[in-house]
Amino acid sequence: MRLIPTEIVVHILKELDDEKDLIQCTHVCRQWSYHALEQLWYKPSITRSPRCLSFFNTLQLKQHSFPYTSFIRRINLAPLASLVNDTHIASLANCQRLERLTLANCFHITDVGLCNLIDVRTGIGPELVSIDLTDVLNVTDKTILKIAICCPRLQGLNLSMSRPHFDITDVGIVALAQQCPELKRIKLNNCVTITEKSSIALALYCPYLVEVDLMNCGVTDRTLQALFSHCRDLRELRLNQCDAAESLLTERVFLDSALANNPNYYEQLRLVDLTGISSINDHSIAILVEAAPRVRSLVLNKCFKVTDGGILSVCKLGRYLHYLHLGHCSQITDRSITKLATECNRIRYLDMACCIDITDKSVVELAKNLTKLKRIGLVKCSNITDAAIQALSYHSMSLERVHLSYCVKLTVPAIT
């Protein structure tokens, strides 16, 4: 065993998926034990309270049989969110090679614990590449400023909140943008005090962004103009404004941006969420589709100005389109949906809730052509009848869910 080169041993151990097999390998010899433990501790699986306590106690020991803290590269403490506090994460400061840290829903954690953990001298800041602070409700600009100073290699930051959060402002995000030029992914949904200052700074200083989530942030025309001009690698863009008091985007938002008259400008763009942006119209969609012809997921929920013209533009996405949300686009009719059914036949998810002019004709065409359809939403499509449901049941073999609330013309026999 000792004659086997180290790189061969490491390669063999990486092929083992079962934790029990790796544990068995630790008994072969010291060399195998070292590399097997390195694999086991690369991303420790911590899902139960007793194991959690044992893990943190081990990290705090001054002497180890093996350098466990240097093995750890990724930690996910979300399964223990209700238990983890500042004291626990303080022990992670010994993990000097830690790159990815997930603290989603760890609501006991505060700025004090996070700042001590990230500190450039005594913490994990210099090596940190990604940190997930989803629903860490006590986090404020103090932590964001600390991340900006101590984490120059940062590529991903998730600050998603399930309810409006007021303690993260432009002060922290602008500093972050200026100090972390390698940033690729940032999620700020429900950080409601964020304005265009933050998003413009991100566009200017972080040109490698591939995922941006500004749900319910202060998004303006200048925001999108900056993003489209400077961030050419964007793959996911979420601008959901469903809870915003009023959308600040105008009808010229796409017309005055780099998207206009630039076919295939964003070939890599795969997801666009424009929920609740009332200024989005058919012309906006035509520009978007022309510039980003391979969008896979498109959300136009509550884009009230969208008509058949806009959906006919969406049809140009063809086989690339898999997910389409048209909820509350009440001006859409059978004319565009029947065309969509034939042109975009790889759609898996389609929501047409409150599209009140949709009839059986559309649903029948969708059932015939969308052979991979898994979910369809027809809530409050009051013109569909039993014929539509019969077509779905006959043609759509892959269908998993159908939403039919308030479809008042349906009868019991069609449903059963």
TrEMBL record:
<dbReference type="GO" id="GO:0031146">
    <property type="term" value="P:SCF-dependent proteasomal ubiquitin-dependent protein catabolic process"/>
</dbReference>
<dbReference type="InterPro" id="IPR006553">
    <property type="entry name" value="Leu-rich_rpt_Cys-con_subtyp"/>
</dbReference>
<protein>
    <submittedName>
        <fullName>SCF ubiquitin ligase complex subunit</fullName>
    </submittedName>
</protein>
<dbReference type="GO" id="GO:0016874">
    <property type="term" value="F:ligase activity"/>
</dbReference>
<dbReference type="Pfam" id="PF25372">
    <property type="entry name" value="DUF7885"/>
</dbReference>
<feature type="domain" description="F-box/LRR-repeat protein 15-like leucin rich repeat">
    <location>
        <begin position="139"/>
        <end position="390"/>
    </location>
</feature>
<dbReference type="Pfam" id="PF12937">
    <property type="entry name" value="F-box-like"/>
</dbReference>
<dbReference type="InterPro" id="IPR036047">
    <property type="entry name" value="F-box-like_dom_sf"/>
</dbReference>
<dbReference type="InterPro" id="IPR001810">
    <property type="entry name" value="F-box_dom"/>
</dbReference>
<dbReference type="InterPro" id="IPR057207">
    <property type="entry name" value="FBXL15_LRR"/>
</dbReference>
<dbReference type="InterPro" id="IPR032675">
    <property type="entry name" value="LRR_dom_sf"/>
</dbReference>
<dbReference type="GO" id="GO:0019005">
    <property type="term" value="C:SCF ubiquitin ligase complex"/>
</dbReference>
<feature type="domain" description="F-box">
    <location>
        <begin position="3"/>
        <end position="46"/>
    </location>
</feature>
<keyword id="KW-0436">Ligase</keyword>
